Predict the 3D structure of the following.
Amino acid sequence: MQRTVRDALIAVAVVFGVGSLAMLLAHVSPINGFGALLDGALGNPSEVAETLLQTTALLFPALGVALAFRAGLFNIGAEGQIVLGGMTAGILGVALPLPGLLLIPIVLLAGAAAGGLWGGLAGFLKARFGANEVIATLMLNTIALLLATYLIGGPFKQPGAGAAETPPLPAAAWLPVIIPNTRLSISFILALALAATLWYVFRRTVFGYELRAAGDAPEAARRAGIDLGRTAFTALALSGAIAGLGGATIVMGVLHRFNTGLSPGYGFIAIAVALVGNLEPLFIIFAAFGFGILQSGAIAMQAEANVPRDVVTLVEGLVIIALAGRRFIVERRTA
Amino acid sequence: MVRGLRPVYAALILAGSAVLLAACSHAKSIADGGPARLGMVTDVGGLGDRSFNDSAYRGLLAAKDNLHADVAVLQSKSASDYQPNLTVLANKEYDLIFAIGFLMAKDVNEVATRYPARHFAIIDAVVDQPNVASVTFKEEDGSFLAGAAAAMASKTHQVAFLGGVDIPLLRKFEAGFAAGAREIDPTIKVAVKYTGSFDDAAAGKELSGVLFDQGADVVFVAAGKAGIGAIDQVKTRPGDYVIGVDSDQDALAPGKVLTSMIKRVDVGVFRLAQETVAQKLPSGHLVLGLKEDGVGLTAFQYTKNVMTPDRIATIKRLRAMIIAGTIKPPSTREELAQFKPVPLGR
């Protein structure tokens, strides 16, 4: 608990400190800059809805990253898993002739399966050959993006389209909107439910215990009869499935078609979100909301205060470095 | 350690609250009766494309300088940025929100439905909503003149069109160009190729090379950044020319770019800005052709050796005939098949 508060405060310090510095360099008063950001993210109900939309997009991959992290595994591949989950949803949502009640769950599950396959691949390489999952998941990102670019620009290209994207999804495959006249769909509720489920799994199930044992004390876990290879595979596959599910909800709830630009780096920001939330699903919800504010307020900040929105990308990156670095140092010391 | 840092955290929380308070007062600063607020969302080409988006931005800057409007530009890194960008400008109650490019048509349609009280403008596409103004150009008119100039400059009686993506918008360029060439030389060969994208300079270079090798000596390139590749290609080919598109590209290879078919997106943006400032919020469909200076050719600054005063006079006569309605350049392949050269007269 105390550690969570401390990590959150470090993140806030980095955001406001470095953000202010960058704004001063751009000759903008940080009060105006952050003012425009917060006003743009929370100024009226429809802006809050956009912020919750960003929160949702970050929450899925952050939960996935946290699951792998609990088992001591760094999943840097959420970005690629989002892309493949989204692509699968984009293709199947158009191809399957089913009514909405069946179509939506099936397409969501297919998106999760695609992400799970991709995460599982890294897990298999780890379990079978001892390949470092950081490198494997990182490189699989590039492969996923190029695979999607090829499939969408080639075999599944929409005839006559000016951009590489799938045809629009039929309305039956759209996730229902929960606040009228906004883009916020039931994916938000789905993400919250998933966070609650994972909280239960981590706290109360054998699997949750195995994850933590494998992560915190692998040697002891192995001696206690936990199959470390199997745990690594399962953790990375589930982690990928959650990120892939997130990708599917972006396609079905927000874009209503797939293109390779569906994620502006959610998979990477998710690492910061998971760390700020100290790998606790319920705290991660609040962390995702915080980063959601940054994501959605950045656009208004650029329009209203003339601060390039890359300032937000910058501080998000630094939060990852600050928290991941700290965690790394602490673990080195205690190991 | 934790205890020692407590004052720092307290200071941070105070600073955060100060910003929050500033945010609340900030929200009320949009006073009625202030300057017009104009927002613009670029497509993925972005600012610095030396073509379409840059031209729109010139129009917006002209509105800032001459009409004293407040302007904001949001660039789109990918297609999924279109809706968030448009939505933010709608939430921030901009008076008119420009969407630059047909790629945004679906998104403008959705956002305009969600924000019926806000006004939008889209370039190069028609969105049928009461609060959306659509601006399109008679590309076939300008391309007709480009085709005529190409046929005049050609020694091999072969010219070519290299487009970006084979869609109706680009076929307006293609059909107008082919008809213009036939107007000057009824038996001329017009080859047609498409690169398949608007951002592949390498494909532009390669395919323009193929067209030159097949005997064409003037290639009209309407393919965004791919045009830069074609201009690279023609630099090494004496006697051959390319024709540029959208912005004035003549100076990119002086003497090798015969002319550029310019599309004055800035003119369209500025006109809608004027209407907004005059509190006549634009809607409906604005079509810009030769008469409105929405399209046209550059002045052959570097190519006067081939484009003699006689030939330039003919181009001017064709322009007048199109404006008068004597010549109707085709805008589709079907219309092109029906097209018959009109006697020029003296």
Q: What stands out?
A: DSSP finds 13 helices and no strands in chain A. The mean pLDDT of chain A is 91.
